Amino acid sequence: MSISDLFDSGFKKRNEDHFAAIVRIAMSDGVINDAEKAFLDRLARNLNVSEHDYKEILKDYKTHPINPPLSFDSRLERLYDLSRMLWADHLEGKDQVKMLRKICIGLGFKSENVKYITDKALKLVHQNIDLDTFTEEMRTMNQ
């Protein structure tokens, strides 16, 4: 196996784990609605999750670990995806927000800031902003 094969499989595994974390949010109320399904379909394509892997993750999403990204920008990008997942049906449930907070800790955000971070993230996605604006706004939260 070459070095590039190892890198590719590691990258694929991180994408699958990220996708599984988002499926976990979608499944927190026990069902995936049409808006969530459409978002998952788009995200699977963007993350190069195969149809086979997509189905396997849906069946067994809890076995995938939440791998925290090393860079703050990568954490924000994942938070953006997860927050949009919650907003896909324009109604966040208490359990979904609680799950998002747990995943934020898993992504490497400090537990004492998680409520503020998730509240701000959800407020921003309610405004239907893009990733660049989201990242900029989240970066200024400590200033």
What's the topology here?
Layout: H1 3-26, H2 34-46, H3 51-59, H4 72-87, H5 94-107, H6 114-126, H7 131-139
Description:
The chain has 143 residues and is an all-alpha fold. It has one domain: TerB-like, CATH 1.10.3680. Helices cover 69% and strands 0% of the residues. It has helices at residues 3-26, 34-46, 51-59, 72-87, 94-107, 114-126, 131-139. The radius of gyration is 15 Å and the shape is globular. It starts with a helix and ends with a helix. The relative contact order is 0.13. The model is unreliable at 1-7 (pLDDT under 50).
Brief synopsis:
This protein has 143 residues and is mostly helical. The chain is built from seven helices and no strands.
**Main sheet specs:** none
Strand content: under 5%
What is the average of the pLDDT values?
83
Please state the overall shape, judged from the principal axes of the Cα atoms: globular
Tell me the CATH architecture. Orthogonal Bundle
Order of helices and strands: HHHHHHH
- How many separate domains make up the residues? 1
Named CATH topology: TerB-like
**C-alpha termini separation:** 47 Å
Radius of gyration of CA atoms, rounded to a whole number: 15 Å
| Spans where pLDDT lies below 50 across 5 or more residues | 1-7
Helix content: 55-70%
